[in-house]
TrEMBL record:
The lineage of its organism: Bacteria, Pseudomonadati, Pseudomonadota, Gammaproteobacteria, Vibrionales. The keyword S-adenosyl-L-methionine applies. This is Carboxy-S-adenosyl-L-methionine synthase. GO terms for biological process: tRNA wobble uridine modification. NCBIfam families: carboxy-S-adenosyl-L-methionine synthase CmoA, PRK15451.1. Gene3D superfamilies: Vaccinia Virus protein VP39. S-adenosyl-L-methionine binds at Y39, G64, C65, S66, D89, N90, D117, I118, N132, R199. It catalyses: prephenate + S-adenosyl-L-methionine = carboxy-S-adenosyl-L-methionine + 3-phenylpyruvate + H2O.
Amino acid sequence: MANRDNIFAAPIEKLGDFTFDENVAEVFPDMIQRSVPGYSNIISAIGMLAERYASENSHVYDLGCSLGAATLSMRRHIKAQNCRIVAVDNSSAMVERCKLHVSAYRSDTDVDVLEADIREVAIKNASVVVLNFTLQFLSPDDRQTLLERIYGGLKPGGILILSEKYSFADDTANELLIDLHHDFKRANGYSELEISQKRSALENVMRPDSIERHKERLGSIGFSSVAVWFQCFNFGSMFAIK
């Protein structure tokens, strides 16, 4: 049973920026399920996409792996021989727990869990790369550079799976989708105080792009096929194929 997320349940006098620290790692499964609409569907489909695209003697990367949900989903599905998953996160609390989750299940697909900055990890011989709600936490200047490095390290026909929170240029649509997301959180037991405090904590560290901006960026880098395959409110996931 996942620990209940009560991080923002009481008033916080000095509300700092959101960080993936020990407190967040402790409640992350509950937090993500109650905060991100469609998260379970995305995790399941990442496994199915990895089964389809992971090739023999290649690497699969989960960049910003947190507790390893996408890594474990891919590991369950991948059938390709001699395929190695590289799971990377810069939070020591997340990496520690991810290693425990990975070691709890035996599989023919090996997994390396690394504590590192994803902007500095070499991407090579990759058939699948996953950025599952990760890119949005990088500064806008770093996003293009990272995606270019991923493209350079992907094998021809390889796939990037990119899940993100989206912004929308149409103010009416943007506010409606934000309100629907907040309704989703209320329905999952979050109070007005929790919703407000977490939104403030994320304000400076998570800056979402529009779907159009993602497509434009990925297309300019050279990906041949880019599409949104899942969306619920202002959250969704795209694929980009080299």
